[in-house]
Design brief:
25% of the residues lie in helices and 18% in strands. The protein is α/β, with parallel strands linked by helices and 509 residues long. The strands form four sheets. Strands 12-11-10-9-5-2-1-13 form an eight-stranded parallel beta sheet. Strands 14, 15, 16, 17, 18 and 19 form a six-stranded antiparallel beta sheet that branches. It has a three-stranded antiparallel beta sheet with strand order 6-8-7, with no helix packed on it. A hairpin with an 8-residue loop joins strand 14 and strand 15. The radius of gyration is 24 Å and the shape is globular. The two termini are 29 Å apart.
Length: 509
């Protein structure tokens, strides 16, 4: 990877769901000025890059992923000037700002869609994908009462009409090739949006539904061509600016030009419990997981993408249950130790560093109950609305249950999850062997528990042992331990390392 992207080697990202982070004007909704006010906290934590979920003009049918103006900050978050100010202040503190890019669709309230839905031909008639064949059974075609008597393709919800970048395999007369001039011109409008935010200070984009830009593209050949062209454009005009994909298939996304892909679902590691199929997450206290379900694929991907891009681990995000769900603080610490010591830049979802809980039964602005519980307000202190907002009607209810975590009660408290996470981030920054590009290998590829691996760069070699279970284990270290970097619930007896439940040992050899 070009030297312009060297900053990624030591990057630790912090994802912010803006409406739930910090409210500065008392309307019950978080805003950009709220992020500005909390930059000192993010800097203190050790994060040097922020990914912000959509803050663009929207009717909020899907929490901002239904955009009506891609070049305007939604009023509830502030103004474009606030974004410029955020970038300036963040950059002064050495923090990068990554925006969410929604390339696949807009809102049905977007001015382009209103024009596109008119019967009379105009410049935006083909900006979206319309089907005039009532017999077509192509999936996700939707019909509403518009002047135009056609069905439109929607990306996710019916309120999100798909932008027409074309089809890789054209099979019906109403479909356009991705190489058509109309589709190429639509792509130019996306690049104009990127240019706009780069011009205001944005350092890169996390791309929503990145693999779905081209339709009828089962092997993503069209999507890869699409993004490779954009990456080439960016490298020429904006060296050092990055693209992060929502793809979770790095052998496709990284060759497509993305600097990072995200290990999204957690798969066999964090968030998959199917007892009837004897499938359990690896990071669970019962210790029923199977490491090889993750490790074999991971090593293959790591070897094939080395030097070209990263597959990043995330503590969570706005679309999945919080990492705390079903886990104690001690269990969460083992997850954080893993995320912070693996290759690739890690991503912390706001609140995971204090163990914010998943709140059941929340559905607002398209969140659905499966993910709404991960979008509740950040818990800053023990005050009203946990310090998120002075409003009597906050965006979502805060967690006021007994033992609900907050920053103020954990900051400076030895052994708290917040201080533990901060310490892990500090360790990552202070050891090049834990850089995103440093070498990696499992100590014993056949070992299931504990998790034991080595990171190496230049003259430093670090080993990490993690026991994410409640069971006591012992391993024998053949190498000489030169120094302990972090010790949680372990003991050394000669060459033996005794790992009590939920233990972590990070050391030099």
């Amino acid at each position: 990877m070009d030297k312009a992207f060297d900053w990624l080697k030591d990057a630790v990202f912090y994802e912010i769901y803006p409406q739930s982070f910090y409210d500065t004007n008392g309307d019950g909704i978080g805003d950009l000025n709220g992020i500005i006010e909390k930059l000192d906290y993010i800097k203190w934590l050790g994060c040097n890059a922020i990914w912000i979920n959509p803050f663009y003009d929207s009717p909020f049918g899907d929490a901002g992923y239904d955009v009506t103006n891609h070049k305007k900050v939604a009023k509830r978050y502030g103004t474009n000037e606030d974004f410029i100010n955020l970038c300036k202040k963040a950059h002064d503190m050495g923090i990068k700002i990554i925006c969410d890019l929604i390339p696949c669709h807009t809102s049905i309230e977007h001015e382009y869609f209103k024009l596109s839905s008119k019967k009379e031909k105009n410049d935006y008639s083909d900006f979206y994908i319309w089907c005039n064949d009532n017999e077509s059974d192509y999936p996700h075609l939707n019909k509403r009462a518009y002047e135009r008597d056609d069905r439109y393709l929607c990306s996710f919800y019916a309120i999100q009409p798909a932008i027409n970048y074309g089809f890789y395999n054209v099979t019906e007369p109403w479909q356009m090739s991705m190489d058509s001039e109309i589709c190429k011109n639509n792509k130019k409008k996306l690049i104009e949006v990127m240019d706009f935010w780069f011009g205001l200070g944005c350092d890169g984009f996390r791309v929503d539904m990145a693999k779905d830009v081209i339709k009828s593209d089962p092997k993503t050949e069209g999507a890869r061509k699409f993004w490779r062209e954009i990456r080439e454009y960016m490298d020429n005009k904006y060296p050092g600016k990055i693209l992060i994909s929502e793809w979770s298939r790095p052998l496709e996304s990284i060759p497509a030009g993305f600097h990072m892909d995200m290990f999204l679902s957690g798969g066999s590691l964090f968030r998959k419990e199917i007892p009837e199929e004897n499938f359990y997450s690896y990071f669970r206290k019962e210790g029923k997981g199977v490491l090889s379900r993750f490790s074999e694929e991971y090593v293959n991907i790591l070897n094939k993408t080395k030097g070209t891009g990263y597959w990043s681990f995330v503590s969570g995000n706005h679309d999945q249950p919080r990492i705390s769900k079903g886990r104690s603080v001690e269990e969460i610490k083992t997850v954080m130790a893993f995320i912070m010591t693996m290759p690739s830049p890690p991503i912390i979802y706001y609140g995971d560093e204090i163990g914010m809980r998943f709140i059941e039964g929340i559905d607002k602005e398209g969140s659905q109950v499966s993910r709404g519980g991960s979008r509740t307000p950040m818990q800053w202190n023990e005050g009203k609305n946990k310090g998120f907002s002075p409003s009597d009607t906050p965006y979502l209810p805060v967690d006021n249950s007994e033992g609900s975590p907050c920053v103020s009660s954990q900051r400076g408290k030895e052994g708290s999850l917040l201080e533990y996470t901060k310490n892990l981030i500090d360790i990552r920054h202070n050891h090049k062997a834990l850089n995103a590009d440093a070498g990696f290998k499992f100590i014993d590829e056949k070992m299931n528990y504990p998790l034991w691996y080595e990171r190496k760069k230049d003259n430093e070699t670090i080993r990490v042992i993690i026991n994410p279970t409640e069971k006591k284990m012992t391993v024998s270290e053949k190498e000489k331990i030169q120094g302990i970097i972090l010790n949680t619930n372990t003991a050394l007896e000669g060459n033996s390392i005794i790992l009590n439940g939920f233990s972590v040992l990070i050391y030099n050899v």
